[in-house]
Design brief:
Number of helices: 3
Strand order of the largest sheet: 1-3-2
Distance between the termini: 17 Å
Strand content: 15-25%
Radius of gyration: 21 Å
Number of domains: 2
Order of helices and strands: EEHHEH
Shape: elongated
Number of strands: 3
Structural class: alpha+beta
Oligomer: single chain
Largest sheet: 3 strands, mixed
């Protein structure tokens, strides 16, 4: 995610923009106008979310995958097997 985007839990879906909208600069700056807007504006997204229990087979797989990566990092440091990119570090 970008530095100017904040994602948080809330009771309903909501977007709040903090910053300025300067439409007259588009004629002067062209496409650089959007880069400037990304720097001076901040977006806050509130998303309704609930914490639910993770099924045990999924949790077991992620524990196994973490141990697998740790073992490979220690004993096979130059070996990069095909695996999920979720936990590459």
């Amino acid at each position: 995610m970008s530095k100017n985007i904040l994602l948080q839990t809330g009771d309903r879906l909501k977007v709040t923009k903090i910053g300025a909208n300067l439409p007259f600069l588009y004629k002067v700056m062209g496409d650089r106008y959007f880069k400037v807007l990304n720097r001076i504006n901040q977006l806050n997204f509130s998303v309704p979310a609930t914490n639910c229990d993770i099924p045990s087979p999924v949790l077991d797989y992620f524990h196994f995958a973490a141990e697998y990566r740790q073992y490979n990092r220690i004993h096979l440091p130059h070996f990069l097997p095909l695996a999920s990119s979720l936990h590459l570090k």
